[in-house]
Automatic annotation (TrEMBL):
<keyword id="KW-0732">Signal</keyword>
<protein>
    <submittedName>
        <fullName>Uncharacterized protein</fullName>
    </submittedName>
</protein>
<dbReference type="InterPro" id="IPR038941">
    <property type="entry name" value="At4g14100-like"/>
</dbReference>
<feature type="signal peptide">
    <location>
        <begin position="1"/>
        <end position="23"/>
    </location>
</feature>
Length: 224
């Protein structure tokens, strides 16, 4: 398999971060390893993201019981993009400015379940952003850091180089229903306007489970 250079660089970097003993956990330590905290069913979070040098502030509204997830993405000195995801596979990407842009896409995966980190490999404790974290990874996917004391997420890094710093994490906070309505221009001529982007679609359909679900949102961050 040919790995993209960026991925190789990140894997090499991660290998440097962890000493060999934490890279090779023994069977015995597996039994006592902490498990990542299940995500709350509903929360509001503000994230600062670095997408290969492109900075973004993301408001994340996670709402599992209602089968929906919202990323409101402010690009630095740039576009404010709304990424509204339904668990039936439909995502709306739109702006609310005078350009009235909207893309509708369908994915074969729903939104990320609260236990999506289950089965991640424990890598030990590290300081990240000044917080002592338990760290897990899902190979070729994500590196995830959770505050040891509060159990809140602090930071995560996708293996494509995108990183997220968690600025706020408000458990139980829900965005009211009217805000989950995509604008009317998303529904006009829906058949013509539905996005046929082969590269995005192959990303979406070749990845199943939590990878595909996470990529569904991560993808929006790279839209312009
Ligand atoms: C964002 O990430 C790039 C590497 O992709 C790094 O060079 C840059 O310093 C980072 N910017 C900030 C503000 O962290
Ligand atoms: C999924 O649900 C949303 C919100 O109810 C709706 O707008 C969309 O058309 C649905 N998609 C499918 C494929 O049924």
């Amino acid at each position: 398999m040919v790995l993209p250079c960026k991925l190789v660089a990140i894997v090499a970097f991660l290998a440097l971060l962890f000493d060999s003993s934490s890279c090779l956990p023994s069977i015995a330590s597996k039994l006592t390893d902490p498990a990542p905290t299940t995500w709350p069913l509903q929360f509001h979070s503000i994230l600062f993201m670095n997408n290969s040098g492109k900075l973004q502030k993301v408001e994340l509204w996670y709402d599992w019981p209602n089968g929906r997830n919202f990323n409101i993405i402010q690009n630095q000195l740039g576009k404010l993009l709304y990424d509204l995801e339904w668990t039936n596979g439909t995502s709306f990407y739109y702006t609310l400015d005078s350009n009235r842009e909207c893309r509708v896409m369908h994915f074969p995966v729903g939104i990320l379940g609260p236990n999506w980190l289950q089965g991640a490999n424990y890598l030990g404790q590290r300081y990240m952003d000044g917080f002592l974290c338990n760290v897990w990874e899902k190979v070729d996917f994500i590196w995830y850091c959770e505050d040891v004391v509060s159990k809140r997420p602090v930071y995560w890094a996708f293996f494509n180089g995108m990183t997220a710093h968690v600025m706020t994490f408000e458990v139980g906070k829900v965005l009211e229903d009217p805000n989950w309505q995509a604008p009317v221009y998303c529904f006009k001529e829906a058949d013509d306007e539905e996005e046929q982007n082969p590269s995005l679609e192959s990303v979406a359909s070749s990845t199943t489970g939590s990878h595909g679900r996470f990529l569904r949102g991560a993808m929006a961050l790279s839209l312009d």
